[in-house]
Amino acid sequence: MQRTLFTALLLFLPFLPSWAAEPNYICEPDKDWTALFDRTGGWLAGDGIFSYGIDGNSKQGSAAGQSQTVFHFSDSFIGNANADGTFKPGLVMVNHCFAVLTGCKPEPSKMQFFYNTNKDGKPANLFDKHFWLGDGIVVNSVLYTTGTMVDPKTWAMEGPWLITVPVQNGKIDFAKTKTERANLFHKNEKNAEVLFGIGICDEGEDIYVYGFRDEKTPFFPRQLIAAKAPRRSFGDVSTWQFWTGERWSTDIAESNRPEAALASGMSNELSVTKMTGGCYDGKYILVYTENCITEKLNFAVADTPFAQFSKPVTFYRCPEPKIYEEEIKRTYGPKAHVITYNAKAHPRLSPPGELLVSYNLNIWGMKDGMFFTTKTQGYPRFVRLKFK
Questions:
Q1: What 3-state class would DSSP assign to 342?
Q2: I need a labelling partner for 300 at 20 to 30 A (CA). Which of 256, 281, 317, 334 fits?
Q3: What are φ and ψ of residue 250, in 5° steps?
Q4: Is the peptide bond between 160 and the residue preceding it cis, with omega within 30 degrees of 0?
Q5: Which residues contact 343 (CB under 8 A, 6 or more apart)?
Q6: pLDDT of residue 19
Q7: How confident is the model at residue 10, as a pLDDT?
Q8: By the 8 A CB rule, do 115 and 98 touch?
Q9: pTM
Q10: Structural Rg of the chain based on CA atoms
């Protein structure tokens, strides 16, 4: 009888619900990193936050001492704010800007922001188009990122462009920026699209650049796809290869098929990190917002940068949509609501066994003609994901 019962329990174990197992992680808000971006002058709010080493090292825990970490942002508010977060007159929105942090701690005095100014002295874009920026990396003293423009009415994408900026003596020389169209977008006869540049994982001689695949059907779960770029020729996209699900190909069209997908339900921006320390030492951790715009931050695990990722784990639920619900509707109208989106890890600023993770806030559904009145729902929030 005992042996029969023991056998039945063994058979039943694989079907236990996920909550029955003790989680192998803890996650908690990181108030210090969030406070770094809660500012009252200059850059006040923005999304699209990515980070990487100005010295070319973006691997986990590589920021230290007087090393410098680049941050870059997409749509950002530049101006001044009152103590309660409301904007003062003169606010300007730019489509992208940069910052450099010296050291590895969230100290406001060590953070410097960069954006252009026009002939009237008002803030302006650094680059020659209204780019939203993808992930970035510094290779052989050149900063690389991608820029894409999106039609706000149709959401049709234009681009991407490959953006290159020289780094000289530890400083980014924005005056010598170059932009050129890059073959990192493809649409097939069924209107399925792929776009690369939403995340980067540096593996040494090979640099993995991630993209998404989207089919124009209702509720399609956006898919993760991968490209591999040689470090020696990173700036030459013609030398990149694209994962087909079975092999690497020089034809981007071969990544535009379901078999190439490594995961689904992706956000427009994400991260893949090779972990050191913790229970996933040596594994690759994908971090993203489930289905792009939700309250759910997920991670998944793979053995290689281009392997199928595991079933996702929701490690955090963003509280801001509920926290600000009444205030937002009262201020911006009954259809207005806070959204959270585009979570990603910042491995360079993460010690072994941990990932520092950011996510963005925004407001949708405002009355026609209304604009943000406060920075509170516009600057990124940070959490710390610790693996046991």
A1: strand
A2: 256
A3: -80, -5
A4: yes
A5: 267, 270, 287, 288, 289, 297, 298, 357, 358, 359
A6: 38
A7: 42
A8: yes
A9: 0.93
A10: 21
Phi-psi region of 79 (alpha: psi -120 to 50; beta: other; left: phi over 0): left
How high is the mean pLDDT in each 10-residue block of the chain (388 residues)?
Answer: 43 42 90 98 97 96 95 97 96 97 97 96 94 97 94 76 96 97 94 96 96 93 97 97 98 98 97 97 98 97 98 98 96 96 98 98 92 94 98
- Which among 17, 121, 160, 74 has a CA at the least distance from the CA of 344? 74
Identify which of 135, 147, 150 has the alpha carbon closest to the alpha carbon of residue 229: 135
Pick the CATH number of 41-387 from 2.60.40, 2.115.10, 3.30.310, 2.30.30: 2.115.10
Question: Distance (Å, rounded) from C-alpha 369 to C-alpha 350?
Answer: 41
- Alpha-carbon distance 158 to 153, whole Å? 13
* Inter-residue contact 215 to 203 (CB < 8 Å): no
User: Would you give the DSSP letter of residue 57?
Assistant: -
Q: With beta carbons less than 8 A apart as the criterion, state whether 79 and 373 touch.
A: no
CA distance 170 to 114: 15
State the Cα–Cα distance between residues 73 and 283, nearest whole angstrom. 28
Question: What secondary structure letter does DSSP report for 257?
Answer: S
In one letter, which amino acid is 139?
A: V
What is the rounded distance in angstroms from the CA atom of residue 357 to the CA atom of residue 347?
9
CA atoms within 13 A on the CB side of 118: 9
Tokens 């940070």 sit at which residue? 382
